[in-house]
Amino acid sequence: MRSEDLNRVIEAFGPSDLQKQRMLEGITRHSSTQVRQKRSMAKVLIIAVVIYLFSGTAVALSNTELFKGIFGNSIYVVEDEILFPMESVADDQFKLTLEGVLSDTYNSIAIVSVEALNEQSRLQLEQVSSNLQIGPLQQNIQSNSTAVVELHHLAEQNKKRFMVEFRSMDGPLNGDLEVSLTTEKSRLTLSAPTVSTIPTMIIQLDEVHYASADYVPQTVIISPLTVVVEGYEKGIGYQIPTPNITLHFADGTTIDVFNQDTVFNGSRFPEEGVTMVSAQFEKIMDLKQLRFITVDGVKYPIGENEMN
After folding, report:
1. Mean per-residue pLDDT over the chain, rounded
2. Beta bridge partners of 293
3. Is 105 left (phi over 0), alpha (psi -120 to 50) or beta?
């Protein structure tokens, strides 16, 4: 309402000029207060929405963040392939939780947490890594390697988290793994699925190139996590042989697979003449950027049909 219109209304009631001025000022102040209150309420609602959205984002990213401390930002290459079973078992001492699994054909990496439930078990948390184990439930895998690494950056009060890894050197994983925590008073076990959700490349090598060689690599299996080479030996030497494999990416970078800083594993089965060697990447690889590989000097282009 304009001031001149308001004055005409007020004159009908016959107040003095001073009363009219006070009434006008009071109404103006009241209107300003209402506007400020509405603006304040709008700010509160906006802040509440932002907090809600941020909280939802944090929950959505939390499981990926568990693996980010291991693989860095390269985890986002395979974040959609992470399994989140979130299975837990507990007794009166500890709670064991499977928080996430990342697997390819031969390798399974799980993140588990161990929570102390009383003062006595809290004192055992510092040494609990030696009480964690991982192994196959049904499958008979004779050659494998395992690792348990504490993730110090993910520790909470009364809770520790660990990366538990199982790598088969005997053949593809096709059964669940068992993660166990065994102490003087506790025996807790969880099943970790080993289903491979990460796409892999399978490249068959030209065996003619190895006609006069003692070692014949036959198949190269590449995942964003590892490279596995299956082959056989005509004559068995002391060391398990490895081929010279180089990966060539679209941006011009290369990786000499068996000359990385990471340790590689090998196994041989003399009665079958089978040899397997594998190497893990230092970070997760984006195989969509892989253009070709060279194996012992022979070039093998990468085609879309090689992704499985």
Report:
1. 79
2. 247, 300
3. alpha
* Residue 61 to residue 110: CA distance in whole angstroms: 17
The better pLDDT of the pair 100, 24 is held by: 100
Distance CA 199, CA 103 (A): 10
Which one-letter amino acid corresponds to residue 281?
F
Phi, psi (deg, nearest 5) at residue 285: -95, 145
Q: Could you tell me the two tokens for 23?
A: 């009434």
Hey, what amino acid is at 9?
V
More confident residue, 38 or 262: 262
Best CA proximity match to 25, nearest among 13, 33, 14: 33
Which pLDDT band holds residue 306 (cuts at 50, 70, 90)? Answer: low
186 CB contacts (<8 Å, ≥6 apart)?
Answer: 91, 93, 94, 121
What pLDDT shows up at residue 47?
35
Per-residue pLDDT at 278 exceeds 80: yes
CA–CA separation, 20 vs 2, rounded Å?
A: 14
What's the order of all strands across the beta sheet hosting 226-233?
A: 201-204, 215-222, 226-233, 274-280, 264-269
The secondary element (H helix, E strand) that includes residue 110 is: strand 107-116
